[in-house]
Amino acid sequence: MTLLHVDTVSRFFGGLKAVDQVSFEMESGTIMGLLGPNGSGKTTLLNLISGFLAPSSGRIIFNGRNLAGARVDKIARAGIARTFQLVRILPSLTLLENVMLPAVFGHRAHWGKEAERIAREALEKTGLADRAGASAGDLNYIDQKRLELARALAAEPELLLLDEWLAGLNPTELQEGIKLIESLSGSGITIIMVEHIMEAVRALCPRCAVMNAGRLIADGETSAVLSNKAVIAAYLGDAEDA
Amino acid sequence: MIRLAIALLGLVALAVVPLFASEYELGLLIGMATYVALASAWALFSGQTNYISLATVAFYGTGAYTVAVLNESLPYPAVLLCAALIGAGMALLVGLSTLRLSGIYFVIFTFGLAELVRQLITWYEVSITGTLGRYIFLDLTARDIYWQMLALAAVAIGLTAWINRTRLGLALRAIGDDEVVAAHSGIHLARTKLIAFTLSATLITLVGAVASPRWVYVEPLIVFNPTVSFLTVIMALLGGANRLWGPLVGAIPLFLLFEWLSVNFPDTYPIFLGLLFIAVVFVLPNGVLAGLDDLRARFGRRGK
Amino acid sequence: MTTLVLGLVLGGTYALLALGLTLQYGIARIMNLAYGEVTLLAAFGLVFLFQTAGLPPLVAIILIAPAGYLTGWLLYTFMMRPLVQRATGKPGKLEVDSILATFGLLFVLQGIMLVLFGANFTSISYLDQGVNVLGVSVALNRLIAFAICLVAGLGLIVLLNWSRWGLILRAVALTPGSAPLVGIDVNKVSRQGFALGTALAAVGGASIAMYQTFSANDGVIFTMKALIIVIMGGVGNVAGALAAGFALGLVETFVATTFDPGLTLAATFAIFLAVLIWRPQGLFGRRS
Amino acid sequence: MTITRRTTLRALASGVAMTMLLGANLAHSADETVKIGYAVAKTGPNATGAGITTIPNYELWVKDINAAGGLTMPDGSKRMIEVIEYDDRSSNEDLVRAIERLATKDKVDLILPPWGTGSNLAIAPLMDRFGYPQAAVTAVTDKAPEFAARWKRSYWMLGGGHDYANGLADVLKAAVAAGTINNKIAMVSVADGFGIDLVNGARPSFKEAGLEVVYDKTYPLGTSDFAALMAEAQASGADSFVAFSYPPDSFGMTKTAQSMGYNPKVFYVGVGGAFPIYGQIADGKQEGVMSIGGVNAASPAIKDYFARHTDSAGAPPDSWASAITYASLEMLAQAVERVGLDHGKLAGELSTGTFSTIIGDVKLEDNQLRDLWWVGQWQGGTFVAVNPSDKDGAVAPVIPKPNW
To answer: ipTM for the complex?
Structure first.
């Protein structure tokens, strides 16, 4: 079943085409890596899907509904959750409250014990359960990243958008992170992950899409895509990021 | 539950006090209740969301003016109801048009709003009705006003406590921290802010309405005095605007201090007041309650 | 024609008043509620120098400007700097803290002025004769204030846009966070910006003292007007402040002559609020 | 001093009663003071008015009384005045509380009124409840008769808007009849209590006097630039310019008129026109400017008062409400001397007694002072009274006003 259909979506900033006529589809329960050099439009594409930005043209059909240009909270309630490239947590709230937010206001909108149960479960999955009552502002960087993922999970999303969530982790943490995403994918959540760490992409994503200068230049089976000439050319142009 | 009982007991005690108080002490009580109500109502929206509103006096003055206009044509409870409705209507209108402003722009807008309302009322009264001052001759004793004000203060604090336990409270706190995250969590930003802003503004309008019979004579310059907006903000922030009892903790000592200074240093009190203010900002940056918490934490640590 | 000339002259006063505030907030990020009090202090200073030392106001202004700079420098170093340091990494914190601290400062300065000068109206008569400008009679002292405004404003624009120091100021104004990366001492620049803003406030106050009656309680009015213009012009935007000042002067004069003088202030605020809603970054501000 | 037989008798009778009471008191404390309290604006928008008209007169009076050994009691003994003063911060809420404090905590013997119409109205119900007499001096209101009836111990001593407007209409009508000016008037007013009261009085009374208002605009409180307004007034073809304005506006208009060379034959400004500082504002060219109020400049009592005020406050008083403020205090002192400090008796005496003051003999009519100057004019460096023209001490107006 097609969960997400991005249909010739574009976004311009003045004269700059940040996302240019991008189209792809995703089946429910699949996981896709979104690659490309810096400034190629990956984060902008995620912002369009999550509603943070409105597309200049095109349709984003999710579960049969066109969500292009809808308000962020409406899209969130439709079942799309995300993490941010630069971590965003709510520092004055506790961990539990941070995570309860999407459980309460998100896709399934629980309240009371049920919301708390879901939030605790999400904290459990990300290894933060023992600090549920602590203030989020006191967390270190890695734990903030975990908290962000926990928050995305507590939304019980159908589609999860991860924006370089694995960046900045040390090798042990990276392995844990990969396992975590693997288990999520196994539980039926559809995932798009923007990622620079090829090891993770190879391990997690059977399918890959590559963007360059706003356009989708490749989309298909990961190993095939990564050996695609256009993709290699795109990366060589910006080698230090690869 | 015990806390609730203590709070209720305190409320009853406060309600009985005027039976023993002198006129002047009653005046002080009214003043304190007024500012506790204002600061708590203000914090209901601004304390949680960090949107610093200087529109307090726009609503406060509107409440007073409503009483001044209607006090001879309607029974008192109906006048209060009208004031509440007008305040709510105005808040909705303002909220719908402004809540996408943030930070300093919101502060300035709300300040300008108070001035605009004052100018428009002045112009209307001068050009259309041909008068400016209005009289409020209501048969209310200082005690009546105190009880009403106490009730409003209790409602403001009670409502805040209740909201803090609801989804609305959680949403407001999330908005105060990061609106982007709040929206991505599924919170309808505009609606959430609008509800809280309207509740807060309605309460503030009522405070103005209840306070006005004490002035007898009302004109825009008197009721739209921007100092009220500033004092409200300062009191709430002093105590800790994002805490339930913060506004109360800030309002009472500050109010008494104002009174004490103006009684004992009528000529130089602004200087003392200003210096004290600056001192508070430097010593208690997050409000008195947070300062107490810090102190407790420090002693606790030492104890261990 | 009358409307145009009178409006521009009035606008000049407004713009001059706003220049300092836009620098203070734009560069040092200090929302200075005591701005009007500083302006008044300079106005009283001018009257004092004129009446007791017999100094002509135009000479007095030359003395008052550096005194303003020094005052600003001291204020920033001892009062604002600790707040700025405390607020690093906490968005919005400095705004709240500076509003609170300068609110306190407002009371202190007002109290000092009340003790020193009393609550009476103060006014001097200086160059009060009319001058014919394009067929409209304008007071010479207002024209001088207008000229001071133009000189100060254009000077600032030139300084900010074509000097190295101006480039640094603008860098700090735009991205205080990344300015240190290119070796800029943000603290120093902020202090300079704040001090320069204070100096401008002083010059504005001194010019106003030449033609307007004022009393120790008028500070808030000055702050309000300046604030409106700063926001309309785009925070930290000197050219914007000039343009917004003139625009406001024209609008007030226009409303007064064609509609109803009773609506001038209401019109000011209405336009101001409309600008805020329509373009929160100001008429001439950049979209962030 | 003219004392009717009735008041003499009453004074005697109450004097006896008071002597007995005081006798008891004196035994208790020989040098007891009279506590007098007031709350006025020392900060905020009202501070300027209070600082010019109210506070210096209170201070002068207390100084004068205490220098003479204190307030004279009916038994001839003297008690020094002890002052308790508060700042109402120009806020009625604070003012009301200060009055409550004075009455119930400080338990002062007398309360002097605050500055301003709104302030006096705000405390009137309280003063009435506590029983203090309230001589509201700096309150201009057409509703004075109504208020005097509502609060029996309140006294309204500065007339109403209609009075001043009628007075001005009289002056202008006479000048039109004499052919010195045309009947056209350019009128501006401040959109605030005082300006509105006056302009509402002026419109009908000008019409009745056959004067035509060709320019009639209000401007908001806080306006600082009058160039546009004055330019239009100048273009209106009226010989008379009338402004019902507040001090900063009166000053601003004067300066604007001077700089633009606007020389109407009658130049009338509102509050502030009779302030001593006005001459300085007008750069010494105030000759012929009309304003509200006035004093009988030839009277020795007024001359003496001006000298003492200048001595005490460092500046001469304004020529409108200052002298009346001082006179109201003299009335109070004389009433105390006749009947003592009992509020009821004091109130009765103020209502019915005749008092000798710096503005002449004063007797209130229905608790209002009606024998007032409505229009004054700067002549030869003094602000003299020109209307009512039949009142003792009135001077003929100079019309047209000499050019700036």
So the answer is: 0.79
> Does residue C285 lie within any of the structural domains?
no
Residue of B139 and D326 predicted with greater confidence: D326
CB–CB contact A101 B182 (8 Å): yes
User: Taking 60 as the threshold, does the pLDDT of residue D16 lie above it?
Assistant: no
Does domain D161-296+375-387 fall under CATH 3.40.50.150? My reply is no
Q: Is the pLDDT of residue C171 over 50?
A: yes
Average pLDDT over residues C109-122: 80
Cβ <8 Å between D94 and B130? no
Assess if residue C192 is contained within a domain. yes
CA-to-CA dists, residue D103 to A79, D84, D116, angstroms? 68, 11, 20
Instruction: Report residue B4's pLDDT band, with 50, 70 and 90 as the boundaries.
Output: confident
Least-confidence region, from C52-61, D21-30, D150-159, D180-189: D21-30
Is residue B207 domain-resident?
A: yes
Residues A72 and A110 placed together within one structural domain of the fold? no
The total number of structural domains in chain C stands at 1
CB contacts < 8 A, C to D, total 124
pLDDT tens, per residue, chain A with 242 residues: 789 999 999 999 878 889 999 999 999 999 999 998 888 899 999 999 999 999 999 999 999 899 988 999 999 999 999 999 888 888 888 999 999 999 999 888 888 888 889 999 999 988 888 988 888 888 888 888 889 999 999 988 999 999 999 888 888 888 888 988 888 888 889 999 998 888 889 889 999 999 988 999 989 999 898 888 888 888 766 544 43
Q: For the whole model, what pTM was predicted?
A: 0.83
> What are the chain D neighbours of C261 within 8 Å (beta carbons)?
188, 217-220, 223, 228-229
Q: Mean pLDDT in chain B? A: 86
The parent domain of residue A172 ranges over 2-79+158-236
Residue A73 lies in a domain: yes
- Multiple choice CATH, D8-159+300-363, 2.40.50.140, 3.30.470.30, 3.65.10.20, 3.40.50.2300: 3.40.50.2300
Does residue D248 belong to the interface with chain C, where contact is any CB pair within 8 Å?
Answer: yes
> Which residue among A150, A182, A199 closes a domain?
A150
Whether residue A35 lies inside any domain: the answer is: yes
- Would residue C229 count as lying in a domain? yes
Integer Cα distance of C217 and C203 in angstroms? 19
- What residue of B is the nearest CA neighbor of A75? B186
Q: Quick one: three-class SS letters along chain A?
A: CEEEEEEEEEEEECCEEEEEEEEEEEECCCEEEEECCCCCCHHHHHHHHHCCCCCCEEEEEECCEECCCCCHHHHHHHCEEECCCCCCCCCCCEHHHHHHHHHHHCCCCCCCHHHHHHHHHHHHHCCCHHHCCCEHHHCCHHHHHHHHHHHHHHCCCCEEEEECCCCCCCHHHHHHHHHHHHHHHHCCCEEEEECCCHHHHHHHCCEEEEEECCEEEEEEEHHHHHCCHHHHHHHHCCHHHC
CATH number at residue C219: 1.10.3470
CA B65/CA B63 separation, integer angstroms: 5
- Chain B 5-34, residues with CB within 8 Å of chain D CB atoms: 22-28, 30-31, 34
Q: Does B231 map to a domain?
A: no
Q: Of B105, B120, B126, which is closest to C276 when you measure between CB atoms?
A: B105
Total domains in chain A come to 2
Q: Is D92 in Cβ contact with B266 (below 8 Å)?
A: no
Token output for B263: 């009684």
pLDDT band of residue B302 (cuts 50, 70, 90) is low
For residue A28, being part of any structural domain is answered with: yes
Q: What percent of chain C has pLDDT over 90?
A: 3
Asked if residue B129 is part of any domain, the answer here is yes
Residues 6 or more apart whose Cβ sits within 8 Å of residue B102: B51, B179, C280
